[in-house]
């Protein structure tokens, strides 16, 4: 899941979006709409951005760790 900031007319809107795979196709599914960014509490927006940035970093680290472990396993098999 990730936060999406979209412009519609003069205003930007914040929503929570997830990627969903259906029959091999990837679609975006809006999970929650928060509304116009200029009407939201700035601290709320900042906390959401930090929360989802941490989750993204965590997923990236996990993926990197999995790649590292796979490389080590292949190297062990080759020696």
List the helices and strands and how they pair.
Blueprint: E1 2-8, E2 11-22, E3 25-36, H1 42-78
Antiparallel strand pairs: 1-2, 2-3
Key descriptive features of the protein:
79 residues, 1 helix
Helix and strand pattern: EEEH
Q: Tally the helices: what do you get?
A: 1
| β-strand amount | 35-45%
Strand order of the largest sheet: 1-2-3
Unreliable runs: none
Approximate shape: elongated
Span from first to last CA?
40 Å
Please state the CA-atom Rg, rounded to the nearest Å.
18 Å
Overall SS class: alpha+beta
Number of strands: 3
- The whole-number mean of residue pLDDT values reads 86
Helix content: 40-55%
Q: What composes the largest sheet?
A: 3 strands, antiparallel
Oligomer: single chain
What does this structure look like?
The protein has 79 residues and is of the alpha+beta class. The chain has a three-stranded antiparallel sheet. Strand 1 and strand 2 form a beta hairpin. It is elongated. The model has no long low-confidence stretch (mean pLDDT 86).
């Amino acid at each position: 899941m990730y936060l999406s900031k979209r412009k519609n007319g003069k205003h930007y809107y914040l929503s929570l979006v997830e990627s969903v795979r259906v029959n091999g196709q990837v679609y975006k599914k809006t999970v929650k709409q928060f509304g116009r960014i200029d009407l939201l509490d700035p601290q709320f927006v900042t906390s959401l951005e930090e929360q989802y940035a941490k989750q993204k970093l965590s997923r990236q680290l996990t993926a990197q760790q999995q790649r590292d472990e796979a490389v080590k396993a292949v190297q062990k098999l080759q020696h």
